[in-house]
Amino acid sequence: SLKTWFRCSAVQFSSAQSGFFPPAEGIMLPVGAFHNRVAFITGGGTGLGRAMTATLSQLGAQCVIASRKLDVLQQTAEEISSQTGNKVHVVQCDVRDPQAVSRCVDQLESLTGLPDVIINNAAGNFVCPSERLSPNAWKSITDIVLNGTAFVTLELGKRLIQSQKGASFLAITTIYAESGSGFVAPSASAKAGVEALYKSLAAEWGRYGHRFNIIQPGPIRTKGAFSRLDPTGSFEKAMIDRIPVGRLGKPVEIANLAAYLSSDFASWMSGAIIRFDGGEYVSMAGEFNDLRRVTPEQWKVMEAMIRSTKGS
Amino acid sequence: SLKTWFRCSAVQFSSAQSGFFPPAEGIMLPVGAFHNRVAFITGGGTGLGRAMTATLSQLGAQCVIASRKLDVLQQTAEEISSQTGNKVHVVQCDVRDPQAVSRCVDQLESLTGLPDVIINNAAGNFVCPSERLSPNAWKSITDIVLNGTAFVTLELGKRLIQSQKGASFLAITTIYAESGSGFVAPSASAKAGVEALYKSLAAEWGRYGHRFNIIQPGPIRTKGAFSRLDPTGSFEKAMIDRIPVGRLGKPVEIANLAAYLSSDFASWMSGAIIRFDGGEYVSMAGEFNDLRRVTPEQWKVMEAMIRSTKGS
Amino acid sequence: SLKTWFRCSAVQFSSAQSGFFPPAEGIMLPVGAFHNRVAFITGGGTGLGRAMTATLSQLGAQCVIASRKLDVLQQTAEEISSQTGNKVHVVQCDVRDPQAVSRCVDQLESLTGLPDVIINNAAGNFVCPSERLSPNAWKSITDIVLNGTAFVTLELGKRLIQSQKGASFLAITTIYAESGSGFVAPSASAKAGVEALYKSLAAEWGRYGHRFNIIQPGPIRTKGAFSRLDPTGSFEKAMIDRIPVGRLGKPVEIANLAAYLSSDFASWMSGAIIRFDGGEYVSMAGEFNDLRRVTPEQWKVMEAMIRSTKGS
Amino acid sequence: SLKTWFRCSAVQFSSAQSGFFPPAEGIMLPVGAFHNRVAFITGGGTGLGRAMTATLSQLGAQCVIASRKLDVLQQTAEEISSQTGNKVHVVQCDVRDPQAVSRCVDQLESLTGLPDVIINNAAGNFVCPSERLSPNAWKSITDIVLNGTAFVTLELGKRLIQSQKGASFLAITTIYAESGSGFVAPSASAKAGVEALYKSLAAEWGRYGHRFNIIQPGPIRTKGAFSRLDPTGSFEKAMIDRIPVGRLGKPVEIANLAAYLSSDFASWMSGAIIRFDGGEYVSMAGEFNDLRRVTPEQWKVMEAMIRSTKGS
Ligand SMILES: NC(=O)c1ccc[n+]([C@@H]2O[C@H](COP(=O)([O-])OP(=O)(O)OC[C@H]3O[C@@H](n4cnc5c(N)ncnc54)[C@H](OP(=O)(O)O)[C@@H]3O)[C@@H](O)[C@H]2O)c1
Ligand SMILES: NC(=O)c1ccc[n+]([C@@H]2O[C@H](COP(=O)([O-])OP(=O)(O)OC[C@H]3O[C@@H](n4cnc5c(N)ncnc54)[C@H](OP(=O)(O)O)[C@@H]3O)[C@@H](O)[C@H]2O)c1
Ligand SMILES: NC(=O)c1ccc[n+]([C@@H]2O[C@H](COP(=O)([O-])OP(=O)(O)OC[C@H]3O[C@@H](n4cnc5c(N)ncnc54)[C@H](OP(=O)(O)O)[C@@H]3O)[C@@H](O)[C@H]2O)c1
Ligand SMILES: NC(=O)c1ccc[n+]([C@@H]2O[C@H](COP(=O)([O-])OP(=O)(O)OC[C@H]3O[C@@H](n4cnc5c(N)ncnc54)[C@H](OP(=O)(O)O)[C@@H]3O)[C@@H](O)[C@H]2O)c1
User: Which alpha helices (DSSP H) does C85-184 contain, by range?
Assistant: First the structure.
């Protein structure tokens, strides 16, 4: 019958289009773009934070990475330093604890001085039906993502203002900060809070020489994110199917964007929120996008039906 | 295998939840809320425009409806008048033609005087792959929706300003004005344009006593919309499945909202855009909402997998 | 000189337009619209929460109001009950404390059973340069606004789901949840988080019979808000000047909107965010809105200059 | 008195902060990033279009620029070619005319083949109170900006799809596409329409190898924009005052961003809208940002007043 027609004859998605969109693996910015700059990256030991650290280090920055697991940080720091020749420092810090953050910034100051580039990238997340969330589960995410980002940002901001030193702040949120999403409600709420914080400070702290921008990544395979968001691996295919670019993102792609936003090339950018997701968000959100399942032959039939409609 | 696991055991959607959300069929505002008010509704002869006209007329407004098909307008006007006891006037007008719009407003002025309430509801739309759109097909939609709304709004606005008379303007757009949507690109563009026009005028013309607001409806069955957007009827079930409220909207529901927005109860509302869609938009846009297909048993397995994840 | 021309001859703003937009002081919904319904309002003892409680009570609801100050709650409850003839219950509760929230819901269940209507209205806020915020000052706001709303929502949601009972959830945020704002960064962040939580749950919990909507108020004089946001009173005039409707909002106006959103007339609305601000937001945000200071004579000069421009 | 206190003692804005945000004048992308690529830029003869053309040409692209004024195009093409050593072609085209657009693309195909990079940059605009706009004035802007962009995009899209060739589409809109703005309503509407078109096609045409992104610039001095938006020059200071970065943008800054978005480094970006405005938008839109006028001494007084507030 007409009602089930499309399902049966649906266009098969091959995501073959990803061939049109090969990721560029190299580094985009000119050599030395971060020469004499200090970059502080939370969660810089793994995943996207590690990729951003590697790129900034390659471009000449002295990097400082901070998170809870000292051993992970140290191994990353050594690997990156040995590749780039630029020192990567490590500081152990749990961003949920304001005193730990303060001590971490003390250490940072004595290691490198206050940073020119700050990347708030540390986060926690897991999928869970909201009715199964305890207050502690709620706080386990919002404390890292929202309070952690605020503590780091306020502590560094105060000291930078005190020292009359400008800086670029970048935070990594997610595409569902905008729309919200079931099954990741604490993360959605906390990330939306981070975006509002950054927009607020972009307006307020420009006069102190600070810029604030945001990247909202779509899905990029990292162990940290995927093991807690798609533990069975069964969700990934559906994501790729709906991504117009036909593939997941690569850490190096986000690292190049982050380096641009943190560099002088973007010194006029502040208060911006940049979605970087292969088109996934617009593809999900648009009400008629499922019609990509309609075949050319079916379109002919539909067009004839529409044309024959009379009146309203 | 794990990868196909969810598809096979997926939760069956019954949309049984619609039982929780019965539509209220009555009229919301107090009797006489539009007594001594004149309302002008484009596209008021059919579908949602007709429902809004019926409600305003019931509430005491003198209504004037305008569109291309005089016979349709007349029949609607008679039916509504005979039910409500309040006169409904008709004016033939093709909103794409600025001179026709000017003549229509002449007629309106002589019939009822300038209106207190204006509803830009007339529109055209059809689904079509964008690569099949000719320039004329593009213009056939944008000329009605964007230019038509602008011509009506500017013509009435000028005369109202001249007469130092305040008014409430309301436009009906759509949820994909915000996100865009494939297969309805001309409509998405034109409706987004209407929203920007209204936000612009809300800021600019407040000083003349004018308010401007928008309703973005989700799917509400009308002959005009559904025959051109879902001619085969096969799309409707998928829409209902993803609407959290579990059902389509009813014309009377939008009519009650429109009456509120056009009334003095909303005299402090201007520049607002109100999504009215049973939750469809947030449900589509949120990246993890497909996890509603996961069963409670599967959640237990997933939680165990997540818990056992070590490190990032 | 031309450069200072506008400042000197600027249009004087009288906000006389507020005469066009008289607030409707009466109650909008039909008598008995909340008959047999239970409404739970946090922060219902004062300000906007009190106004919403009064309106719902007038419409037949049994209300339960909760906040920290028992005496304030009790006085409000008595005053409203004596006016409406419908019982208003009080429960002391600090929403920052999940155990207190749980006990509060226990009390609520035994007083009235689980509610049909939930309004998350409790909040804290004060103006402060962000560089003067301690971690505790940050948390003093986000703990009430974001965590408090989450604890109340999750606790009630779980029990309602357990009981297979539907409900309408409404939260009160603010217009700067969207844009962020300097000098109120913790509030902006927490309110943005609340919006994301509600959009997430609108998508996720529709299947359990729950709707989630948001009102973003612009400035409405209440003692609580104005004493902490405009202690000197010098900010108010600037706000009124830029509000297209030419006046502040009234508590009863927001109460009527809230009653609509919580009623069956809005049973198809979920995931919506409704700005209610007299047009303030669009007026501030639009880049050229300051041109309202240009007089008609100056426009003639400017038009001539523009017309004489040749080329790009 | 307290009410006028702030005005009198207001912080003097020097925009001295612009010293923190020096524009980078060099080219960001690696040499040869557009080697063997063809770029088509509408309005490429002047202003921002010219700057983007110069940068792409410098990076190795063969550029084709199109607009109405052949002499302007030719002079620009010669100047750029002679600097970069890469050929810049010119095609006369009025984008409002679909047949002219079709002929232009014919010419383009024979000159260079179909393009890899398309930049829809042509636009028209002028400030004007909306009540002074005739239907023709309305159309003079929307025909260029919305219809022109659509005609160019649809014509190129069809041929690229036919040839199975991927491409990057970029459009230049404006920050008030999002908020609307009085006094530029036709431009706001048309630019909002362009954004919706691009989001729609990002979702729909990914499968054909096409990406669609947007830059929303804030104020960047060009003869074309400033002569029609600020003919007296009196508006510029107010703009700079509210831009957190303390200065206008530079054409080369937008050219670097546009080159990035059009390059393979951004091959995973589609459906994105990037605000590039020195923070102006968030600074205008945030309700409490005017408090930057409060001096440190005044903050102390205000804090004491807030602290002494009791109750709600
Ligand atoms: N990958 C994606 O698809 C994706 C998509 C959207 C957004 N994102 C965002 O991208 C960012 C990086 O994610 P990822 O994918 O790279 O995952 P990841 O490897 O798990 O990164 C998270 C990092 O945060 C650190 N962290 C967690 N809790 C912390 C705490 N309390 N204090 C200090 N550091 C803490 C972790 O280090 P320790 O365990 O050592 O503390 C870890 O290095 C996150 O903000 C994430 O939300 C990722
Ligand atoms: N129903 C839905 O699900 C839905 C969803 C989202 C948005 N909307 C919007 O809701 C509004 C009403 O739609 P509907 O569903 O009620 O469909 P409809 O019955 O087809 O209404 C469209 C109306 O517009 C009038 N119209 C079309 N072209 C016109 C022109 N050139 N000049 C003057 N009037 C013209 C039509 O009358 P004539 O043919 O007599 O001119 C008709 O009365 C539209 O703006 C639509 O975009 C509807
Ligand atoms: N008025 C405006 O212009 C405006 C504008 C935008 C948004 N809003 C929002 O509107 C809502 C109401 O504000 P309002 O103007 O009516 O101010 P308000 O009178 O100060 O209301 C705030 C209420 O929250 C309660 N509350 C504070 N902390 C609490 C806690 N920890 N636990 C439980 N309850 C707590 C307070 O009661 P106790 O002190 O007894 O706890 C008080 O009743 C707030 O969400 C506010 O953000 C107001
Ligand atoms: N500068 C800013 O501050 C600013 C801010 C926000 C957005 N923008 C946007 O940036 C873009 C470039 O602006 P600009 O500042 O560089 O101003 P501009 O120099 O005036 O550029 C406009 C270009 O559009 C071309 N054009 C106009 N009508 C055309 C038509 N019918 N057909 C073909 N081409 C046409 C013009 O060339 P011909 O006259 O030869 O046709 C001109 O080259 C525009 O989209 C503008 O809206 C600029």
Answer: 98-112, 135-142, 149-162, 176-179
Looking at beta carbons, which residues of chain B come within 8 Å of C276?
A: 268-269, 272
A191 at the C interface (CB within 8 A)? yes
Distance CA D264, CA D116 (A): 11
Amino acid at B206: G
**Cα separation of C72 and C8, whole Å?**
50
pLDDT at C11 over 90: no
Closest Cα in chain D, distance from residue C31 (Å): 30
Cα of D109 from ligand 3 centre, angstroms = 64
Q: Which residues on neighbouring strands pair with residue C66, listed in sequence order?
A: C42, C91
Point out the ligand 2 atom lying closest to the alpha carbon of residue B220. 3
Q: Which residue of chain B comes nearest to C266, CA vs CA? A: B253
Query: If you measure from the C-alpha of residue B177 to the centroid of ligand 2, how many angstroms do you get, rounded to a whole number?
Result: 15
Angle between helices D149-162 and B135-142 (to 10 degrees): 140
How is residue A101 annotated by DSSP? H
Q: C216: part of which helix (H) or strand (E)? A: strand C210-217
| Nearest C-alpha neighbor of D65 from the set D83, D99, D90, D101 | D90
Residue-wise burial string across A230-244, b where 16 or more C-beta atoms lie within 10 A, e elsewhere: bbbebbbeebbebbb
Q: What is the rounded CA–CA span in Å between residue C227 and residue D40?
A: 57
* 3-class SS of residue C67: strand
Q: Which one-letter DSSP state was computed for residue A10? A: P
Mean pLDDT is lowest, of A301-305, B57-61, D29-33, D195-199, for A301-305
Neighbours of A111 (CB within 10 A): 15
Q: Do B147 and D161 touch (CB under 8 A)?
A: no
Which pLDDT score, from 0 to 100, does residue D13 have?
53
Which of D21, D23, D206 has the CB atom closest to A245's CB atom?
A: D206
pLDDT for B197 equals 98
Chain D interface disruption, residue of B130, B145, B213, B214, most D CBs within 10 A:
B130
Measured CA to CA, the distance from residue A159 to residue B247 in angstroms comes to: 55
Name the helix (H) or strand (E) containing A39.
Answer: strand A38-42
What spacing in Å lies between the alpha carbon of A222 and ligand 1's midpoint? 9
Cβ-Cβ contacts under 8 Å for D128 (sequence gap 6 or more): C299, C303, D137, D183, D184
Residues D121-153 have pLDDT tens digits of 999 999 999 999 999 999 999 999 999 999 999
Q: How many residues are recorded in chain A?
A: 312
Measured in Å, residue B224 CA sits from the centre of ligand 2 at 7
Instruction: Using an 8 Å CB-CB cutoff, list chain B residues near A291.
Output: 127, 129, 182-183, 235
Which among C183, C202, C203 has the least Cβ separation from residue A204?
C183
pLDDT under 50: residue ranges of chain B: 1-10, 12
Closest by alpha carbon to A16, among A244, A287, A272?
A244
Yes or no, beta carbons of A186 and C150 under 8 Å apart: yes
Cα B39 from Cα B88, distance rounded (Å): 9
Q: Element (H or E) spanning A212, and its range?
A: strand A210-217
Q: Does B37 touch chain C (CB under 8 A)?
A: no
Q: Is the pTM of this model over 0.90?
A: yes
D8 close contact with C: CB closer than 8 A: no
Q: What pLDDT, in 10s, does the model give residues A253-291?
A: 999 999 999 999 999 999 999 999 999 999 999 999 999
Average pLDDT over residues A87-96: 98
- Distance (Å, whole) CA A113 – CA A119: 16
Instruction: Report which protein residue has its CA nearest ligand 4's atom 1.
Output: D220
Would you state the pLDDT for residue B14? 59
Q: In angstroms, how far is the first alpha carbon of chain D from the final one?
A: 25
3-class SS letters over D194-218: HHHHHHHHHHHCHHHCEEEEEEEEC
- Count CB pairs under 8 A between chains C and D: 191
